[in-house]
Structure to design on (183 residues):
């Protein structure tokens, strides 16, 4: 079952997490309703 | 795009997702927008752990096209870190899983380049050029690969 995306707001923390996990950060510039 | 279950699943499995909203996070939107020259929505950037942009998606795309672009970004990141065997596999995944998207011909081109980089065998480029005679003949990538045949 698909899960909702857990969006972060902290880009710098996400970079650290990406480095640790060997992933990429997906940075979404959005105007969609929150 | 993101409400699509397949997109949400792919994002959760492969990325660390960060959202900056033009109104709700105006300061971050401006700061990161300046840093990455991203001043339109939706814009999606795939950024590696060192802060280097590896792929950019500007504007809305239907789910299948968007997914194929995310997969293309994974392949580009592998190519950028010179893991050419992984890059070839990831590019071929794009062609296999999303054959009817705009990403597929680009992925077919770069799969050939990745194999060439991994093996130093120019036959990989020739085979890619020949493959474009059978598939995606009208794409820009077929024109670029035509020099290899």
């Amino acid at each position: 079952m698909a899960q909702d995306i857990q969006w972060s707001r902290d880009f710098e923390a996400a970079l650290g997490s990406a480095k640790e996990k060997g992933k990429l950060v997906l940075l979404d510039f959005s105007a969609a309703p929150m | 795009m993101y409400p699509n279950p397949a997109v949400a699943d792919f994002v959760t499995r492969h990325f660390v997702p960060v959202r900056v909203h033009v109104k709700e996070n105006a300061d971050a939107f401006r700061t990161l927008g300046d840093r990455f020259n991203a001043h339109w929505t939706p814009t999606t950037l795939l950024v590696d752990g060192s802060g280097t942009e590896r792929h950019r998606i500007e504007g809305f795309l239907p789910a299948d096209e968007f997914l194929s672009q995310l997969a293309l970004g994974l392949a580009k990141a592998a190519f950028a870190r010179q893991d050419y065997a992984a890059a070839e596999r990831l590019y071929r995944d794009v062609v296999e899983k999303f054959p009817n998207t705009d990403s597929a011909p680009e992925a077919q081109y770069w799969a050939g380049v990745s194999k060439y980089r991994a093996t130093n065998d120019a036959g990989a480029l020739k085979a890619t050029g020949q493959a474009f005679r059978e598939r995606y003949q009208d794409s820009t990538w077929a024109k670029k690969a035509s020099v290899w045949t």
In short: Chain B has a mean pLDDT of 97.
